[in-house]
Amino acid sequence: MSDLQVADSFLVAGGKVRGIELHRERFVRSCAAVGVSAEAFWDEQAGRLPGFGRWFPRFELRMSGELAVQLRPAPPIGGRVRVAVHDGPDPRTAPRVKGPDLELLGKLKESAPHRADEILLLDHDGSVLEAAYSALAWWEDDTLCFPPSDRPLLPSVTAQLLRRIATTQGVSVVEHPITPTDLQSTTEAWLVNALHGIRPIHAWSDSPIDPLPNSHSTPWQSHLDSLARPL
Questions:
Q1: Does 4-70 carry CATH code 3.30.470.10?
Q2: How many Cβ atoms sit within 10 Å of the Cβ of residue 77?
Q3: Could you tell me if 83 and 204 are in contact, meaning their C-beta atoms sit under 8 angstroms apart?
Q4: Which CATH class is domain 81-230?
Q5: Domain map of the chain by residue range?
Q6: Tell me: the pLDDT tens digits for 134-187?
Q7: How far is CA 224 from CA 6, 34, 112, 139, 184, in A?
Q8: Does 4-70 match 81-230 in CATH topology?
Q9: Angle (nearest 5°) at CA 201 between 195 and 207
Q10: Largest Cα–Cα separation, the chain
Q11: Three-class SS of residue 229?
Q12: What would the pLDDT profile of 25-58 be if each residue is shown by its tens digit?
C-alpha cells in the first residue's frame, strides 16, 4: 500500500514552471482536507528549487503526517502516444486527490497491453475519464473538449491552463462524456500533464500509427510553454 496521502509534481526547466500557483493550490487544498497546513512548507521548498537544468520535483505528504520533497531529474519529454483502455471499472480509491493511487496507477500503466504508453480509465457508464498519469482533451472540429468536471477526475493543472489558452484564443470549450470508440473518431485527441505538456494520441491498442499530419498540438504546446514563469 502506498505511503502517500498527497503528492504533486511539476516540470522545472531553467528555473521556470507552468502553472505553479495551481500546483500549490491543489497540494495545499488536499493537505488541508486531512488536517495538515502546507502553505509555509510549499513556499519555503519551492524557493529552494534549482534555477538551472530540468527537474521534476515531487511534493509529498506521507501517512505519518510528514511533509517532504523529492528533487528528481526530469525524465525525457515524450511525444505522441499509443493508448490502451483499462478492462474494468476505475480502480482508484481517491481519484480527486493525487497521491494515494500513484503506486496502483504505476502498476496499471506498466501492465498496459500492446506496449501502450498510457492506459485510459473508464467511468461507470463506459465513458473515458482520463489516463493513469494524464488528463484527456480532444477536438471536435474547432471546439476543444474535456470530460465533464463533475466526474471523478483529478483536477489537472495542464487542462486548466489549456482552458485559459482557449479563452485568450477565442476557442470554444465544451464538456461532455465520450466513449473510447467515439474518441477515436474525433478530429484529434490529447493526453496532457505537467511533465510532457501535450501528447497527441497517435495509436490505439495494436492499431497502426496515425501520422496526424494536421495536428493542433505544436502551436498549442508553444502557447503552453509561454505560460512558464520563474520560481
A1: yes
A2: 13
A3: yes
A4: alpha beta
A5: 4-70, 81-230
A6: 999 999 999 999 999 999 999 999 999 999 999 999 999 999 999 999 999 999
A7: 25, 32, 28, 17, 24
A8: no
A9: 135
A10: 50
A11: strand
A12: 999 999 999 999 999 999 999 999 999 999 999 9
